[in-house]
Design a protein that fits this description.
Number of domains: 2
Number of strands: 17
Low-confidence stretches: none
Largest sheet: 9 strands, mixed
Structural class: alpha+beta
Helix content: 25-40%
Order of helices and strands: EEHEEEEHEEHEEEHEEEHEEHEH
Distance between the termini: 62 Å
């Protein structure tokens, strides 16, 4: 096997850092040619100008039979992998490094609305976080985040993705079951509204777990502590891909551990002390009418 390191690259999200080494294969300029998915999933991922970490977090041995393994710290790819699975693993391990740095990626959108930061949490069902954010912005709110909201230990939203949808899935991650990204916008709004961005860090004041379905009557209920923590943990766990296949016959290696889960649950308990509401509605407009009642 050719052990020549063809490329070492370091990526960052906030203060978190991740190093990827590519061994063997042809010379390449970057591990990934397209950073859109990483920025969609982790808010603001940057390629650093120089490698500073002493060891790689991900090693890709291009030559050899296809395989993947995790030793508790380092993920090792072997063989010919497309970009899609590699970028998913980068997301998972960079999310772990973000946790170590006190940054928590939430599968959630957020808007600065009527003087408060409202988070639309993509919890267990994930039905409405994007449409809720779009409607809040349509009513004059400012965009904090779309797919991902990064929150620090104090509960302050410090970063957020800004693209409303990922329009093209990378090779190896295509999904026939996903509707066209703009279809919901066309149905509920006709065309995509425009908005301005709220760029300053802000405390998350209220959390809404939305459930939008054309058959629902509009209802709002304040959630009990167990429900708050249950839905929040689902949102955080979304980044570790514990229930995903990277490719046929290759599940995502388990990157989580009991100690990490207990620490994460402690953060979840603290974060869930703020107001949480579960809102059912047939449309984003009815959803925000219910939210307006408690603001």
């Amino acid at each position: 096997m050719n052990e020549a390191v063809r490329l070492s690259e370091e990526m960052s999200a906030g203060t978190a850092r991740l190093r990827v080494d590519v061994i063997g294969g042809e010379a390449r300029e970057h591990v990934l040619d397209d950073m859109n998915f990483l920025n969609y999933r982790l808010a603001d991922v940057r390629l650093e100008p120089a490698v500073t970490l002493p060891e790689a977090d991900i090693v890709w041995r291009v030559d050899g039979g296809k395989d993947i393994s995790y030793d508790g710290r380092r993920m090792t790819f072997t063989g010919p992998w497309p970009a899609g699975p590699i970028q998913k693993v980068i997301v998972a391990l960079l999310a772990l490094r973000m946790e170590e740095a006190g940054l928590h990626p939430f599968h959630a959108s957020a808007a600065r609305y009527r003087g408060r930061t409202v988070m639309f949490l993509g919890g267990e069902s994930n039905h409405g976080k994007s449409m809720g954010q779009i409607e809040a912005c349509r009513r004059g709110g400012l965009l904090v985040s779309t797919e991902t909201t990064v929150v620090d230990e104090s509960g302050c939203a410090v970063m957020g993705s800004k693209a409303p949808f990922i329009k093209k899935r990378t090779e190896g991650t295509e999904r026939a079951d996903k509707a066209a990204p703009e279809r919901g916008v066309q149905k509920f709004f006709g065309e995509m509204p425009s908005w301005e961005i709220y760029a300053e860090p802000s405390d998350v004041d209220i959390v809404v777990v939305p459930a939008i379905d054309g058959n629902f009557d509009a209802t709002l209920a304040e959630m009990i502590p167990f429900e708050r923590q249950f839905q929040t943990l689902h949102s955080l766990q979304n980044y570790f891909l514990l229930n995903e296949l990277l490719a046929p016959a290759f599940p995502m290696p388990i990157v989580d551990a009991e100690g990490l889960r207990r620490k994460r649950a402690g953060f979840v308990a603290r974060f869930s002390e703020r107001p949480f509401y579960f809102v059912r509605a047939a449309t984003p407009q009815e959803l925000m009418d219910e939210v307006d009642r408690v603001l």
